[in-house]
Amino acid sequence: MIGVFDSGIGGLTVLKEMMYTLPHENFLYYADTENVPYSYKTTEQIKEYVEKAVVFLRNEGCKSIVLACNTATNVTIEYLREKYDLPIIAIQPAVKVAFDNNTENKRILACATPVTLKADRFENLINSLDIDHMVDRLPLPGLVEFAENEQFESPEVLKYLKKEFSKFNLENYKYVVLGCTHFTYFEKMIQENFPNLQPVDGNEGTARHLKNTLAGLNLLISTVKPTIRFVESGRYVKDEARFWRYLDR
Ligand code: DGL
Question: Domain residues for 136?
Answer without folding.
Answer: 95-200
